[in-house]
Amino acid sequence: MIHTLPDLITPDELAQLRQLVATAGFADGRQTAGERLAEAKRNQQIPWNHPLMPRISAIVMAALGRSDTFMAAAQPRRLAAMLVSRYQPGMAYGLHVDAPLMNEPNHVRSDVSFTLFLSSPNDYDGGELAFDTGAGEAAFKLSARSAICYPTGQLHRVRPVLRGERLAVVGWVQSLVREVAVREFLHDLSEARELIAENAPPRALDLVNKTYFNLLRRYAEP
């Protein structure tokens, strides 16, 4: 299930991230692509082991931790190292699925991917994050400060950038719950708990809580 996270970071955090990114050097993004994807991946990135990435990651991690939607949708257990991607005119990333394991040699299983947009939609043309739904594409081009998270097994691409510059922080999460369908059940139950908390009889809320906790207990992998 795809979830948007509007205004995930504050304006001050966006300014900090942009300043850090402006002082870092970018490398060819194909360095982190597998052999099959090297031709499809045309971008630049600040790799996870760059000296500035711990500061960038700390800001993003704090913001993710504040997001009830992200916590309910991802059920995070561990975060893989992040990177910053940059697309300029002519750059794109063809249709692909992200790698199942990140951070060699200390592998983190990638269950949920996220993209945090640092560029305003007016700063560039093209560059939409597009998902293959099986019935066409669902494309997203969010405002700066906003993010999107989705199951890592989802086929997706970044459409060619035609003008300007597209900057984003990209990362991956190992979830407590590896199955996509179960994470969706848990997210829906979490939302239902919030909706009925004020108006429903206590018994109804107790039963929803019971179902949520027992489902998490059944499928969680601490």
UniProtKB/TrEMBL annotation:
The keyword Endoplasmic reticulum does not apply. Keywords: Dioxygenase, Iron, Metal-binding, Oxidoreductase, Vitamin C. It holds the Pfam family 2OG-FeII_Oxy_3. GO terms for biological process: DNA damage response; intracellular iron ion homeostasis. Fe cation binds at H96, D98, H156. Binds 1 Fe(2+) ion per subunit. InterPro entries: Oxoglu/Fe-dep_dioxygenase_dom (IPR005123), PKHD_hydroxylase (IPR023550), Pro_4_hyd_alph (IPR006620), Pro_4_hyd_alph_FE2OG_OXY (IPR044862). Residues 78-175 form the Fe2OG dioxygenase domain. It comes from the Bacteria. 2-oxoglutarate binds at R166. NCBIfam families: PRK05467.1-3, PRK05467.1-4. This is Fe2OG dioxygenase domain-containing protein. It comes from Arenimonas composti TR7-09 = DSM 18010. The lineage of its organism: Bacteria, Pseudomonadati, Pseudomonadota, Gammaproteobacteria, Lysobacterales.
